[in-house]
Amino acid sequence: MKNKNIIKKITHGMYVLTTTNGGCIVDAVSQISGGDEPLISVAVMKKNYTNELLKKNNKFAISVLSKDVNPEIIKVFGMNSMRDINKFEKVKTTQKEEIQIIDDSIGYMICEIIDSIDNDTHTVFIGKIIEADCFKEEKEPMTYAYYQENKEDLLKITTEKGKTAWICTVCGYIYYGDELPDDFKCPICGVGKELFKLKEN
Ligand code: FE
């Protein structure tokens, strides 16, 4: 391949995907078709607990985050697992069609899962939109590129003084230790050590 960076020019957004008993941040959401019941696709990492849940559940919701969303929501849903914390205790949600919707969002779409495709790392779920609402139409959605450019400010990543810290440039996970092991993989987003950056104290 001459330059794989062109992939980064595909525009993505920032969304919270929720399903019964869990949810996570996703960026790869696409519309597949229009009409009365449009189809969308969403890619979810296989190592995410949410992926396991989506294989048991038949519905999910996508809440669309705005540029001025409370970044705490990104932290709670993007940098933690329901295996460790209850995300729904930390973020305000409202139940619609049995799924928790993020209150601090521009709106939501609720989908019935009609198909899925697995590859090595991700599952692409195809959803038919059965309910949707837009409650803050005037707000600008956050793009994945905006998030990447402003991540350090948004997440206010602080590390412990005197300890060498490595920060995952994709999700913000912090690893403490002088060196990252060669086979290290981010426990949150799965990327390798080459995507970690040394944080100077
Ligand atoms: Fe990560």
3D architecture notes:
There is one protein chain. The protein has 201 residues and is of the alpha+beta class. 14% of the residues lie in helices and 35% in strands. The chain has helices at 49-56, 71-78, 144-155, and strands at residues 15-19, 22-26, 29-31, 39-45, 59-64, 93-96, 99-102, 107-118, 122-134, 165-168, 174-176, 196-199. The longest helix is centred in the last third of the chain and has 12 residues, at 144-155. The structure holds fe (iii) ion (FE). Residues 168, 170-171, 173, 186, 188-189, 191 line the site of fe (iii) ion (FE).
Ordered list of secondary-structure elements with their pairings:
Layout: E1 15-19, E2 22-26, E3 29-31, E4 39-45, H1 49-56, E5 59-64, H2 71-78, E6 93-96, E7 99-102, E8 107-118, E9 122-134, H3 144-155, E10 165-168, E11 174-176, E12 196-199
Antiparallel strand pairs: 1-2, 1-5, 3-4, 4-9, 5-8, 6-7, 8-9, 10-11, 10-12
Q: Structural class, please?
A: alpha+beta
Alpha-carbon distance between the two ends: 38 Å
Compute the number of helices.
3
Q: How many β-strand runs?
A: 12
Task: Give a short synopsis of this structure.
This protein has helices at 49-56, 71-78, 144-155; strands spanning 15-19, 22-26, 29-31, 39-45, 59-64, 93-96, 99-102, 107-118, 122-134, 165-168, 174-176, 196-199.
